[in-house]
Amino acid sequence: MTLHEALTGISGILITPFDGHDAIAPARLSPIIARCAAAGVDALTVNGNTSEFYGLSFAEAERMQAEVPGLVAGRARVIAGIGRSTVEAVRLAARAKGDGADAVMVHQPPDPFVSPRGVVEYVRRVADAAGLSVVLYLRNAAIGEAAIAGLTAIPGVVAVKWASTDLMALARAVRAAPEVLFVCGLAEPWAPPMTALGAQGFTSGLINVAPERSVAILTALRAGEFARANALIAEIGAFEALRSEEQNGANVSVVKAALALMNEDCGATRPPSAWPVAPDSLARLTTLMAGWGLLHGRR
User: Fold this and answer.
1) Domain boundaries, the chain
2) Are 243 and 250 in contact (CB under 8 A)?
3) Model's pTM, two decimal places?
4) Main-chain dihedrals φ then ψ at residue 20, nearest 5 degrees
5) What is the CATH architecture assignment of 3-223?
6) How many CB atoms neighbour CB 154 within 10 A?
7) pLDDT at 296 over 90
8) Mean pLDDT of 288-292
């Protein structure tokens, strides 16, 4: 499968496992990766937001990027998340190909003084260093259409993961850059409206727990069965609602708590994420996992 074909599917964002001493433990991803491969998830991202990228030290991010491709072992395309300061981003990008990544995904800089043209230059430097296909992770459409046009014109940029709820801006961007693939970057719940506007595929953190549910949603969307897709999305609604609690601070926490309930302990999340999951939320999650047949690994 080509990279383009994989990007039109599910871009699964892997969590970062920690051991009992808060050290990264990449090997604990093995059952998650195997489950994703068996379900048909074609692209897996390391160092994404669900990976707690900004909670990792630079050395930890380097190690995750270095080790995950080997764990995937060709069963899916590997996308390396790139970000932080320009110096760090360029360093990560420069080694991504040698580490075995198939593409890089550039996080939109969270700097409070970011400028639209500065973002373009940032991505240009990362793209030059990577020598790989570049996926933009665009969370703030307020940078404007001129900047978005500049970003999609950078050599090597092949896709944009659109993580803004400004759907009219998405529609304008899709029309303005037809040669670039647009992907829903707000996971399953936003996939139907973004698909209707020309995006293909979607990102997902759910794949760490129940990738077959994500694949079923993708299959329905590809068939144009929007009613079916929406019904399947409703079935994961309670899970996504739990992740959105505490101002979205439970996003990764709920995924890791779910994995622990499956006897696949990947450790805690790091501050400022919400950990542990609130008792009432954990009780609801446990009931949900039991209903899905996933409690303690039983399907």
Assistant:
1) 3-223, 236-299
2) yes
3) 0.97
4) -70, -10
5) Alpha-Beta Barrel (3.20)
6) 18
7) no
8) 97
